[in-house]
C-alpha cells in the first residue's frame, strides 16, 4: 500500500470505530431495558439497514458487545443476546437468600451514623430513579444498596460471591421491576430494611431482606416461565 493510500485509510478506520461505538451504545441500551431480550438474534445485514451504515462498523459494534458479555457470537447463528436460564436465575437467588441475610446480621451491628446516612441517601437516589423511570440505573442502584448493607460483615470471600451474584442480577432486576410493576414495593422494602437496621432490630432486618429477595426471585422466575411458554 502506498503512503498516500495509508493516509486516506486512517480517517476511514476512525470513522468506522466512532460509528461502531455509537451503534454498540444504542444496542447496549436496548438490551439493558429489555427491548432486545435474551435469545434475540442480531443480524448484521438487518442492523446495517436499520442504522443506514455498512456492515463493517456493525461487526465492530457486535465484537464490543461480546466483550462485555451482553451478546454471544455463535457458529451458524451469528450474534445472539445473552441471558440467564430459569435454572440459573433460581440458583443465583437461592445463593443470595443463603448469604445475604446472614451477612446483614453481621454487618448491621457495625453500622456507624455515617453508614446509615449514606444508605439513606442511596435509598433516596434509588427511589428517584424508580419514580423517573430511569430503567438503566435500577439494577446498579439496587446492587449498590445491597452491597452497602453487607459491606461491614468482615467476610470478604462471601462478599465477593454476593457481588458477583448481584452483577449477574443486574439485567434480570430491571426486567423484574419493569415487567411486574413492583417498583413501589422494591422502594418500600429497601426503606423498611434500613429502618429496622437503624432501630437495632437486626434479626428482623435480616428476615425482611430474606423475604425481599425471595419475592424478587418468585416474580422474576414467573416472568421467565411466561416468556418461555408464550
TrEMBL record:
UniProt keyword annotations, A-Z: DNA-binding, Transcription, Transcription regulation
Segments crossing the lipid bilayer: none
Ranges for domain HTH gntR-type: 17-84
Xref: PROSITE patterns: HTH_GNTR
CDD domains for this protein: WHTH_GntR
Transcription regulation is among the record's keywords: yes
Gene Ontology MF: a single term: DNA binding
InterPro entries found in the cross-reference section: GntR_C, TF_FadR/GntR_C, Tscrpt_reg_HTH_GntR, WH-like_DNA-bd_sf, WH_DNA-bd_sf
Pfam families (UniProt xref): FCD, GntR
Domain of life: Bacteria
Name of the protein in its database record: Transcriptional regulator, GntR family
